[in-house]
């Protein structure tokens, strides 16, 4: 499939509503720490609240030249001119999302198995979020845990099928997991609490980026 090649960051940050920090505060923390990709996720909010919060966070991202992707709500991404969308397995069809957003916007999708990846690779998307790596409280309706062995097996099969969609590992990832995960061939990682809940987010972000930069370029 011919795709317009888009830049997919190797370190991505996903917002998660907590009692201690607002979504806007989380985005401020992430971009100030050096994050260049934010996925705005605000589950169970009504459309007006979601849009208002998304617009505020988009402005923060723009000031930091940060890619800003909306989780699930394609119509909001279209309306506020976000950089793209991330679609869950039970959400809108990627083909429909592409028709709405056009060829230049980023579309990412969620996968848990090699069969998911094979199916998604035939659709007009730009990256795949594969997970979860381990248990995480930031995700509702958690799919079966993959662990390092699961990633290794899936990525080997992806190479065997000559699949080229960038794969982003997600789910409870810590700094010490970066090297082993990248050795499986993933393109990047997505994190949340490790940045927003940190007492030293800039230092922790720099540690993550340092670990990522030390890895060889991904094969898939």
UniProtKB/TrEMBL annotation:
The protein's name in its UniProt record: Thiamine-phosphate synthase
Superkingdom as given in the UniProt entry: Bacteria
Alphabetized HAMAP family for the sequence: TMP_synthase
Keyword Metal-binding appears in the UniProt entry: yes
CDD domains: TMP_TenI (cd00564)
Keywords carried by this UniProt record: Magnesium, Metal-binding, Thiamine biosynthesis, Transferase
Biological role: Condenses 4-methyl-5-(beta-hydroxyethyl)thiazole monophosphate (THZ-P) and 2-methyl-4-amino-5-hydroxymethyl pyrimidine pyrophosphate (HMP-PP) to form thiamine monophosphate (TMP).
Binding site for 2-[(2R,5Z)-2-carboxy-4-methylthiazol-5(2H)-ylidene]ethyl phosphate: 136-138, 172
Reactions it catalyzes: 2-(2-carboxy-4-methylthiazol-5-yl)ethyl phosphate + 4-amino-2-methyl-5-(diphosphooxymethyl)pyrimidine + 2 H(+) = thiamine phosphate + CO2 + diphosphate; 4-methyl-5-(2-phosphooxyethyl)-thiazole + 4-amino-2-methyl-5-(diphosphooxymethyl)pyrimidine + H(+) = thiamine phosphate + diphosphate; 2-[(2R,5Z)-2-carboxy-4-methylthiazol-5(2H)-ylidene]ethyl phosphate + 4-amino-2-methyl-5-(diphosphooxymethyl)pyrimidine + 2 H(+) = thiamine phosphate + CO2 + diphosphate
Cofactor(s), names only, from the UniProt record: Mg(2+)
Cofactor annotation comment: Binds 1 Mg(2+) ion per subunit.
UniProt pathway annotation: Cofactor biosynthesis; thiamine diphosphate biosynthesis; thiamine phosphate from 4-amino-2-methyl-5-diphosphomethylpyrimidine and 4-methyl-5-(2-phosphoethyl)-thiazole: step 1/1
Broadest EC class assigned to this enzyme: transferase
Span of domain Thiamine phosphate synthase/TenI: 13-192
NCBIfam families with a match to the protein in the record: PRK00043.2-3, thiE
Record family assignment: Belongs to the thiamine-phosphate synthase family.
Presence of keyword Transferase: yes
GO molecular function, one term: thiamine-phosphate diphosphorylase activity
Gene name, Swiss-Prot/TrEMBL: thiE
InterPro entries recorded: Aldolase_TIM, ThiamineP_synth_sf, ThiamineP_synth_TenI, TMP_synthase
Binding site for 4-amino-2-methyl-5-(diphosphooxymethyl)pyrimidine: 39-43, 71, 110, 139
E.C. numbers: 2.5.1.3
Pfam families in alphabetical order: TMP-TENI
């Amino acid at each position: 499939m011919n795709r317009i090649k888009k830049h997919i960051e190797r370190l991505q940050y996903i917002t998660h509503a907590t009692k201690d920090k607002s979504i806007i505060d989380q985005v401020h923390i992430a971009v100030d720490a050096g994050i260049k990709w934010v996925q705005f996720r605000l589950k169970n909010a009504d459309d007006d609240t979601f849009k208002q919060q998304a617009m505020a966070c988009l402005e923060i991202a723009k000031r930091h030249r940060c890619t800003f992707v909306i989780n699930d709500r394609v119509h909001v991404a279209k309306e506020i001119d976000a950089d793209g969308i991330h679609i869950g397995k039970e959400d809108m069809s990627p083909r429909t999302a592409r028709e709405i957003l056009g060829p230049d916007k980023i579309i990412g999708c969620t996968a848990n198995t090699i069969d998911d990846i094979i199916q998604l690779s035939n659709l007009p998307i730009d990256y795949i979020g594969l997970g979860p790596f381990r248990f995480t409280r930031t995700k509702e309706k958690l799919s079966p845990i993959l662990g390092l062995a699961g990633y290794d097996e899936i990525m080997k099969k992806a190479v065997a099928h000559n699949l080229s969609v960038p794969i982003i590992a997600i789910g409870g990832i810590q700094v010490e997991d970066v090297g082993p995960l990248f050795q499986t061939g993933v393109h990047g990682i997505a994190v949340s609490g490790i940045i927003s809940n940190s007492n030293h987010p800039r230092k922790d972000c720099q540690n993550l980026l340092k670990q990522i930069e030390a890895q060889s370029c991904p094969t898939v």
